[in-house]
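User: I'm writing a tutorial on reading structure tokens. Could you give me a worked example: one chain, its sequence, then its tokens, then a sentence or two explaining what the tokens reveal?
Assistant: Sure. Here is the example chain.
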Amino acid sequence: MPPARGDHEARRRDVSEAVWGVLADSGFGGLTLRAVAARMGASTGLLTHYFPSKQALVAHALEILDQRRERSRIPDDADRPPGLAELRRVLLEILPLTPDSAAENRVWVSSWDVSLADPDLALAQAERYRRSRARLRDHAAVARAAGELPRSADPELLAAAAMAFVHGLVVQALFDPAAFPPERQTALLDDFLGSLRARG
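And here are its predicted structure tokens:
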């Protein structure tokens, strides 16, 4: 007899927590059905009920990372003035400024290799980046309309440049945290945004 829906959902939550634990410890390179099962104290046979393949497990792991980022994100529609300050806030959310965000970024960067090797995962990753750029583009458009950015600024290009800048900063901060502590990351971001304001 199949498990009750409540039991199934509870077990899926247990699996998700174990997946995240393996990712946090070993990255995507260490993510296997065997590693997740060992973390749960369960059999790999139980896990294949949820994930029939390594690809399904990796896809679920990426969904978990998305969900964790969404939960930690401050909604755009909160009671805050739109414009450049909101663009800055969104970019700061991406940077590894706390131990939790550093751990999430380590997992995220470790996912690139496995995603590049799988066309379906690569498409899903590309869509995630499109959504992120669209969010930045919308904030940049508001900032331009408010006169905080030059009228000549192209919000689409600015969003792509901002995403490239913060991801480059993420990688440097992960590999050399002593050289890129949170205050330096923030200062570099502010310098970048200042250079955008100065254009035109």
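What the tokens reveal: The chain has nine helices and no strands. The two ends are 68 Å apart (CA to CA).
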